[in-house]
Write a structure and sequence with these properties.
Layout (H helix, E strand, L loop, with lengths): L1 E5 L2 H13 L6 H11 L7 E7 L2 E8 L5 E2 L8 H9 L6 E5 H15 L2 E13 L11 E4 L5 H16 L8 H10 L3 E7 L2 E8 L6 E8 L9 H15 L4 E7 L3 H9 L2 E13 L1
Parallel strand pairs: 4-5, 10-11
Antiparallel strand pairs: 1-2, 2-3, 5-12, 6-11, 6-12, 7-8, 8-9, 9-10
Helix pairs in contact: 1-2, 3-4, 5-6
Length: 278
């Protein structure tokens, strides 16, 4: 077994993408992050591949200020991968399906003595057959540059609702501008010309698109706008050629976990974001 750290995203992508694309649902976050990196949407903090018998057997990647994405790190290699990544800089945490994330965190704890706490527990859903809600006032519109300030405010508000604070090293405005530059399906739901909710659908990668974030300001909630704009974003992804449309929900939010099955989504597996602390 050989572990290789990369400083060139194109080389990493050439090696890791076939492994990730073989199971695009499980590796949805890695694939979309890697797609953005390859198209100039941000930079990598660490890129790593695991090789066995001449084949790529694992991959991990990290962007600045974020946990290591470990869905493609087999638990049997977690300790070796964690130790190799330590050479690239301190690991802030691990994110991915529970088995892989916990294996990486256990390896980090064994080597450093640091403990891990769950920053967020989520559930991955996949769209079966879209059931768009009926009777919801208004309609969807594709967002553009005139909407950057609004979307930036809503990105921050979503993060504060979701995590209690804005945690990205990039500003909300930078995130939104990057999203538009990468041709994300940023959709607004409008009523009488006024935006009341938004949802984003990532560009199709390996036949897959992921919805998120979805946000409705408090004053516009309980009118069905979140379901309507999510359905519109899902339709946009399907029209772009997505064979699978995915989204994550926060397990601590019972409203969203009930909402998405009503428009055709079913649960697949649970994931966790772990943060390390001394």
């Amino acid at each position: 077994m050989e572990i290789v750290l990369h400083d060139d995203v194109e080389t990493f992508a050439r090696l890791a993408r076939p492994l990730l694309a073989a199971d695009p649902v499980r590796h949805t976050v890695e694939l979309t992050v890697l797609d953005g990196l390859c198209r100039g949407g941000g930079r990598a903090a660490a890129l790593l591949t695991v090789h066995e018998a001449g084949e790529v057997a694992g991959a991990a990647l990290q962007t600045p200020g974020r946990p290591v994405l470990v869905s493609a790190v087999p638990p049997v290699h977690a300790a070796a991968v964690e130790e190799a990544l330590a050479a690239a800089g301190p690991a802030l945490g691990a994110a991915g399906p529970i088995t892989e994330a916990e294996a990486f965190a256990a390896a980090h704890a064994t080597r450093t003595g640091a403990c891990a706490h769950a920053e967020q527990r989520t559930r991955l859903f996949v769209l079966d057959e879209l059931v768009a809600p009926v009777g919801v006032p208004g309609g969807p519109r594709r967002a553009d540059e005139r909407d950057v300030d609004l979307l930036a405010r809503w990105r921050r508000a979503f993060a504060e609702d979701d995590r209690g604070a804005w945690t990205s090293p990039e500003t909300p405005r930078e995130i939104v501008l990057g999203s538009l530059r990468l041709a994300t399906g940023e959709l607004l739901w409008e009523v009488d010309g006024a935006p009341v909710a938004q949802a984003a659908a990532r560009p199709v990668v390996a036949g897959m698109s992921r919805i998120g974030p979805v946000y409705t300001p408090p004053e516009h909630r309980r009118h069905g706008y979140a379901a309507a704009v999510t359905a519109a974003a899902s339709r946009w992804a399907l029209d772009q050629g997505a064979q699978r449309v995915l989204l994550f929900t926060d397990l601590a939010n019972p409203i969203t976990n009930r909402l998405y099955p009503r428009i055709g989504y079913r649960p697949l597996h649970d994931t966790v974001e772990l943060r390390f602390a001394a």
